[in-house]
Amino acid sequence: MQSQDVVILLKLASLEAQLRAGQLNGSSNSDPFALRSLEDALGISKTEIGASLQRSVAAKLAIKSENRPKVNRRNLAEFVNHGLKYAFPAKPGAPQRGVATGFAAPMLRGQLVSSGADIHVWPFAEGNQRGPSVEPLFKSVPEAALKDERLYELLALVDAIRLGNQREAQLAASRFEDRIVHA
């Protein structure tokens, strides 16, 4: 597994949720699940996306279904909740300008009162927040998150799990599971 595999799976989960909710435009000429569309949305090459999907299927985090892999949502939730912070740990770095993540992200702000009121950010020149920097799972995450609010929420919850103390991580894990498994 590589860190971008998680980003790609979260994007697929976001697209699947949008499809179920009827939010994807079915009349569009391009398939949002196509490698070219994923490349444009995530800033990850088609070749790397293809290799990532193969790794994800081998790891049982995705399953082959019809013409495209689908996210194995239960297995992904289990991996994110119990293994991600060990496989891809996050350590706050020097303060920088960027995009808010964790419980400082706009859709999660105010949901947890903590003594550590730092606003963690993914470094991004066009970001509008300042705080301790957190290396994103992949370098293009800030830009990709700003294009897709549902993906942004999932990535912010992942970072809350990676960064948080026990109480914060448990709350984030519960919300992540609700968004992935029960959505």
Description:
- With 183 residues, the chain is mainly α.
- The chain has 2 domains: 3-86, Arc Repressor Mutant, subunit A (Orthogonal Bundle), CATH 1.10.10; 90-180, no CATH class.
- Helix content is 49%, strand content 11%.
- It has helices at residues 3-20, 35-42, 46-58, 73-82, 84-87, 141-147, 149-163, 166-180, and strands at residues 62-65, 68-71, 95-100, 121-123, 129-132.
- Strands 4-3-5 form a 3-stranded antiparallel beta sheet, with no helix packed on it. A two-stranded antiparallel sheet has the order 1-2.
- Strand 1 (62-65) and strand 2 (68-71) form a beta hairpin.
- The longest helix is centred in the N-terminal third of the chain and has 18 residues, at 3-20.
- The two termini are 25 Å apart.
Helix and strand layout, with pairings?
Layout: H1 3-20, H2 35-42, H3 46-58, E1 62-65, E2 68-71, H4 73-82, H5 84-87, E3 95-100, E4 121-123, E5 129-132, H6 141-147, H7 149-163, H8 166-180
Antiparallel strand pairs: 1-2, 3-4, 3-5
Which descriptors would you attach to this protein?
single chain; 183 residues; mainly alpha; Arc Repressor Mutant, subunit A; 2 domains; three-stranded antiparallel β-sheet; two-stranded antiparallel ribbon; 8 helices; 11% strand; globular
Summarize this entry quickly:
By secondary structure, the protein is mainly alpha-helical.
